[in-house]
Amino acid sequence: xxxxxxxxxxxxxxxxxxxxxxxxxxxxxxxxxxxxxxxxxxxxxxxxxxxxxxxxxxxxxxxxxxxxxxxxxxxxxxxxxxxxxxxxxxxxxxxxxxxxxxxxxxxxxxxxxxxxxxxxxxxxxxxxxxxxxxxxxxxxxxxxxxxxxxxxxxxxxxxxxxxxxxxxxxxxxxxxxxxxxxx
Length: 183
Prior knowledge:
By secondary structure, the chain is α+β, with helices and mostly antiparallel strands. It has a single domain, classed as Muramoyl-pentapeptide Carboxypeptidase, domain 2 (2-Layer Sandwich). Helix content is 31%, strand content 22%. The chain contains six helices and eight strands; from the N terminus they run αββαααβαβαββββ. It has helices at residues 3-9, 39-43, 46-51, 59-80, 93-98, 122-131; strands at 32-34, 37-38, 85-88, 112-116, 136-142, 146-151, 163-170, 173-178. It has a six-stranded mixed sheet. The chain has a two-stranded antiparallel ribbon with strand order 1-2. It is globular. The N and C termini lie far apart (53 Å).
């Protein structure tokens, strides 16, 4: 066993109780979150790469990414019988500002991902998440280009937290319509 493998095995388990105020070690980037998703998929960003930004989620964000995969993305993948492409996952505050994300975006906490599924429209993907009654807090058909999905908080999950929206652009501004609309 190589020294690097030994170090990886000595990493503490990521649990809500063991959330040190440190950023994750580089070895977590290759960490498998679930059978079909790994951390690296949630850290890729063209904007971050162009600007030389390194995304380093803390243990709490990593735990949230794992929950997002277990509770929403894996069941969705099984239902659609198709791979899911993460177009935007975890964001640092700096990256979120650069991409003009919402100030309190769930991407900052590792609770959200923007996804596309080859062979399905974003509307169809959003609709399937709702039909499966997965524990989401937000499902948004964003501009008919991707599906934004966020997992409910592990602190206070609630059926009242479930927002289903469609984002449209009018005169350069983003507007949200209640419900899913095929745009």
